[in-house]
Amino acid sequence: MKPKLQAIMNLDEGEEIVGGWATPHIPGTGIYKLLAKQRKDGVIEWAHFVQRDNGLKDRVMRGEVENRARLDEVLEISNRNLKKIFGVTLQSTGYDVYSLDGKKAPSTKH
User: pTM for the whole thing?
Assistant: First the structure.
């Protein structure tokens, strides 16, 4: 049976992925991730969550910032807290993009 995909962020036409970041696996917790996209109006939307060992995406937090400098502040604050609590930080990582019908999308700009 094919696992059901759970979208954390949708890309609309004209939007672009800014980046994806993840921590190393944290035993008993999972992997913290942060995804960001830039909308057509230039605003950057982000989603920060933990992916549990069973695949469940938990503790999803969302926000918007007006530019990349502000997104860097979100990353800095997240990393400071993750380092203090778990001894890890978010690192740039690859990510998968899927269409609404569950097929892997070929591009990060739509």
Answer: 0.82
First to last CA, the chain: 29
Sheet holding 31-38, edge to edge: 57-65, 44-51, 31-38, 16-22, 91-92
DSSP-based three-state secondary structure for 19: strand
Are the C-beta atoms of residues 71 and 65 closer than 8 Å to each other?
Answer: yes
Domain assignments of the chain as residue spans, ordered by start:
16-92
**Are the C-beta atoms of residues 88 and 79 closer than 8 Å to each other?**
no
Sign of the alpha-carbon dihedral angle for 11, 14, 48, 83: positive
Q: Residue 109 CB: number of other CB atoms within 10 A?
A: 11
pLDDT digits over 10-68, tens only?
888 889 999 999 999 999 999 999 999 999 999 999 999 999 999 888 889 999 999 99
